[in-house]
Structures are given as structure tokens and as C-alpha cells.
Write a structure and sequence with these properties.
alpha/beta, Urease, subunit C, domain 1, TIM Barrel, 2 domains, 7-stranded parallel beta sheet, 15 strands
Length: 366
């Protein structure tokens, strides 16, 4: 993309109208609306721009069922420029995932499943011998610029009789690799209090708004003391909507208690993309608008906040000299039915619709 492309009269989430000039895959100039010149003018009146959306929890290894999908189907085609595969692969197949990433338009990073078999099975932590520390360490050495953390799914159906021990082993591996852990929470055992006790600064609780009995809020909707203690230690809250892990009721408890998401993510894969209740990152963001969060808060959670967790601040800003890493989207008026993981429906009167994304110097229309 050598010619100067001007995104004319596009609006930032704080309401400022600007022109953004892109050449050779980089942002070369940002001016007031109507002032930039270039060889191609794209009228973006009515559109918002942000730095490229980052989805912190996806499953992008299509070879695995049920938790798999094509990278670009859940990436740039949905306006998402960076996705983080949340533990689809362990040490056995992380190299294949990286190979797939190199052929995709979407930027892909990964959490390494602490089980070397990954999601080849959905009870991947039920046998402790599947947690091969040496294999995991070697994978982290071989793919150190690709792996951003470790993933441990700590819920009853995954760990079975292994209980809390997989998370203890993940903690040891975290110390050896200096990588944080993303912890999937769900049904007990283990009890959520045991899980929280082992979490430290920069670790991620994903599915924090799930509606299962073993969740982070008591029967009155108040946050558990162990959750508050974990947040004080710097533990990060991620939505990870998924098929079974987002409840409007719990999300309302959380907002009332001031327990806000650090990052908003989908836990998307083929089935919940095509048949719901996830559909897309935009659909999940719309749910947070419905819950009363501002557009700035919602977009911040998938741009700057996510980029800062990754220690990649350039992915969360729009600045001349940086790579053109942008998402264009519209905030549309109209009734839309939103469904949570419990089957509960809410009617919203506005929704976010992605229109395109720039990543790696290439524009993809949504």
C-alpha cells in the first residue's frame, strides 16, 4: 500500500473528527477532518476508528473440535486485528498453530496449554502425566515471541480427579518461564476460593461473569472476599463470553459492585460464532453497551488495556509513524436481541458493527 490513502472524516471514540493518512502500511499523518490529501480518499463519515481490536480469548486451531475455527474468520473479517488463542494447543502442536498464524492476515499470539495434548481432548488436565514440564519449557523457548502466557482450564469437567493440582503445576511452570497464567474458571470442584488463592499479579481470570454456582459473587450479588484480595494482587479480569460462561445477571452484579472487566473477549470458535450466543466480538461489546458501559470504556477494553497487558502499547494507540493497526466501526441505532450463555435475552437499541480493519499493511472489509 504505497499510495497515500486518506480515511476522511472518521471519528475517534472521544468524538473528535480526523483524517488519517496511510502509506506503505503505516500511519503517516493525522489531521483535522477535511485537511489531509492523498491519492485515494475514503469517505468515513459516520464511522468510528480505534486502534485495532484485540480479542484476548479465542480458539483458532481449526483441526480441533469442538473448540476450533479459522484465524481470519474470527479475526480481520470481524474487525479484530489481533487475537490470542487461549490454550488450544499444548507443546505437541503449538508449532502447527504458529505455522497457521504465519499464513493469516490477522495477528495471532497464543497461550500455551499446560497439557501437552491441548484441546485434542476436553479433559486435558484429568491426567497429571499430560502436564509435561520439560515439553512445556521447550515450547516456550522455541516460540518465545509467540507464546504470551500459559493456559489452565480449572473446572470439574477438565480436571476431574486431578483437582487443584494442575493449577499448582501451572504456577511452578509460570515461575520457570516468567509467563502469567490465564485460568478458566467454572464448575466445582475445585472451589473458586482455592483457585483464586493461587493467582498472582498479571494472571488472568477468564469467564469471570459466568453464571455457574461456583462463580465469583455470592447469592446477594456481592464479590467474594477472595476475589477482592486477588484484584488487590493485580489479577486481571477477562470476560471470555463463550457458549457457557457469560450471564447478564452476574454481569449486572459485577457492574453494581464496581467490578469492571479489564478486557472483553469472546471465547469464540466455529459453533458459537455461527449459532451463537457469541457471534462476534462486536456482539459481545454491544452487550456491555447495553449494561451501561460507555463506548469509550468498551473500546478501551479491547484496545489500550489489552495492548498494555501484552506489553505492546503500540497496538493500543493511533499515532503517526506506527503501523496502520486500525478498526473501523459504526454505532448503529436499532433494536437487537442479545442472548447470554444462560439463554436469557435482552433487547438493546444500539449496536456496534465493524466495517473494516487495517493490519500488517492490508485493509480487510467486514
Amino acid at each position: 500500500m504505497g499510495d497515500k490513502v486518506v480515511l476522511r472524516n472518521v471519528k475517534t471514540v472521544n468524538g473528535h473528527a480526523v483524517d488519517i493518512v496511510i502509506a506503505f502500511g503505516k500511519i503517516v499523518e493525522i489531521t483535522r477532518a477535511g485537511e489531509a490529501s492523498g491519492s485515494e480518499i475514503r469517505d468515513c463519515t459516520g464511522l468510528y476508528v480505534s486502534s485495532g481490536w484485540i480479542d484476548m480469548h479465542v480458539h483458532a486451531f481449526p483441526e480441533f473440535e469442538p473448540y476450533g475455527d479459522e484465524i481470519d474468520e474470527i479475526g480481520v473479517k470481524q474487525g479484530v486485528t489481533t487475537i490470542l488463542d487461549a490454550g488450544s494447543c499444548g507443546a505437541d502442536r503449538i508449532g502447527e498453530l504458529r505455522g497457521n498464524a504465519e499464513r493469516a492476515r490477522t495477528r495471532l499470539l497464543a497461550f500455551l496449554n499446560i497439557s501437552h495434548i491441548g484441546l485434542e481432548r476436553v479433559d486435558e488436565l484429568s491426567r497429571l502425566e499430560w502436564i509435561d514440564v520439560e515439553k512445556a519449557l521447550q515450547a516456550c523457548r522455541d516460540h518465545k515471541d509467540f507464546i504470551v502466557g500459559l493456559k489452565a482450564r480449572i473446572s470439574r469437567s477438565v480436571v476431574q480427579r486431578s483437582g487443584i493440582e494442575p493449577l499448582r503445576l501451572a504456577r511452578v511452570l509460570s515461575y520457570e518461564t516468567h509467563l502469567p497464567i490465564m485460568v478458566h474458571i467454572g464448575s466445582a470442584p475445585p472451589m473458586i476460593e482455592e483457585v483464586l488463592e493461587l493467582m498472582e499479579n498479571k494472571d488472568i481470570i477468564t469467564h469471570y461473569l459466568n453464571g455457574k454456582p461456583n462463580n465469583l459473587f455470592d447469592s446477594q450479588g456481592d464479590p467474594l472476599p477472595e476475589l477482592l484480595a486477588a484484584l488487590n494482587r493485580g489479577v486481571h479480569l477477562d470476560v471470555g463470553h463463550g457458549t457457557a460462561s457469560f450471564s447478564f445477571k452476574v454481569a449486572e452484579y459485577a457492574r453494581k459492585a464496581g467490578i469492571r472487566p479489564d478486557t472483553i473477549s469472546t471465547d469464540i470458535y466455529r459453533a458459537n460464532r455461527l449459532k451463537g450466543p457469541v457471534y462476534s466480538l462486536a456482539n459481545v461489546l454491544t452487550k456491555f453497551l447495553y449494561l451501561g458501559y460507555s463506548l469509550e470504556e468498551v473500546i478501551y477494553a479491547v484496545t489500550e488495556k489489552a495492548a498494555n497487558w501484552l506489553n505492546r502499547p503500540e497496538l493500543g494507540r493511533i499515532q503517526a509513524g506506527d503501523e496502520a493497526n486500525l478498526t473501523l466501526f459504526e454505532l448503529k441505532s436499532g433494536k437487537i436481541t442479545l442472548t447470554d450463555s444462560e439463554g436469557e435475552e435482552r433487547i438493546a437499541d444500539q449496536y456496534i458493527e465493524p466495517r473494516g480493519a487495517f493490519v500488517n499493511g492490508t485493509f480487510t472489509e467486514c
